[in-house]
Design the sequence.
């Protein structure tokens, strides 16, 4: 279909077209088949590609526990930290990269450690902003076949094979969450944090969406969902949208107990360079 013809399709028609094109090419995934050709390093895919046995599951559980233990050992001393979620696909010349860099700097100046998924794009930008103001900056990197490699603006990079272990670490050691523009992975992280806060499994912690224009559609859909009765508007009261990095940091600071605020250390204003 020509580009002009495609632009005439409604949103629903485009969604259906994408669905059809995907499944024409994707084929089928064999489920619990012995003798699969799945590679050992693709552990989450192996879970669906190979027969499950008690021995194999025990080995998998050991690997999962090792990832949890490594994360606990690396992160338990961080102090007040904020996780910044966002896309790996925005390059240095994109406005969202610069916005995320300013967010990381604002959080760092406020005395927070900045955590991200450790990759490129706005994750790199947030780590970079914190790094440049002398604040602790950590990347929790996921091993992927494409687009994800540790960025140079971290004090330490911790690698994970399992998405769910990594998400636990990104949530467990944070006292607030900033969500920059992003795709499916970012939405997954946003809704994970929102669900845990809504259900009082963590927090209450602020969830700040930076980039008002980008998140407008999500807000509209949220209002639609409220109208459908699946939750009440007040259940999302912990969330806020802003375009201002300093406001994002201030919203999280205000949520902290006074005793914790008093103990936060503001980093040295000296600018750092990557690799120094």
Sequence:
């Amino acid at each position: 279909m020509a580009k002009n013809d495609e632009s005439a399709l409604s949103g629903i028609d485009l969604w259906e077209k994408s669905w059809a094109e995907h499944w024409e090419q994707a084929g089928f995934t064999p489920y619990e088949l012995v003798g699969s050709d799945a590679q050992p390093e693709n552990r989450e895919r192996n879970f669906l590609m190979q027969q499950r046995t008690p021995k194999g599951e025990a080995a998998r559980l050991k690997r999962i526990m090792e990832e949890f233990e490594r994360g606990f050992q690396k992160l338990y001393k961080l102090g007040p930290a904020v996780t910044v979620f966002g896309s790996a696909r925005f390059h240095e010349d994109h406005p969202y990269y610069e916005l995320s860099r300013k967010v990381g700097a604002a959080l760092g100046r406020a005395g927070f450690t900045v955590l991200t998924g450790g990759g490129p794009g706005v994750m790199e930008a947030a780590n970079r902003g914190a790094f440049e103001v002398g604040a602790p900056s950590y990347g929790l990197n996921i091993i992927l076949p494409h687009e994800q490699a540790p960025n140079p603006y971290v004090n330490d990079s911790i690698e994970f094979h399992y998405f769910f272990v990594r998400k636990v670490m990104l949530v467990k050691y944070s006292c607030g969450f900033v969500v920059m523009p992003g795709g499916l992975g970012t939405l997954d992280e946003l809704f994970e944090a929102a669900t845990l806060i809504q259900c009082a499994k963590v927090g209450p912690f602020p969830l700040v969406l930076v980039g008002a224009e980008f998140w407008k559609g999500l807000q509209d859909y949220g209002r639609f969902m409220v109208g459908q009765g699946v939750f009440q508007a007040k259940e999302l009261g912990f969330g806020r949208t802003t375009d201002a990095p300093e406001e994002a940091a201030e919203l999280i600071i205000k949520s902290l107990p006074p005793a914790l605020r008093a103990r936060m250390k503001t980093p040295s204003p000296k600018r750092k360079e990557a690799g120094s």
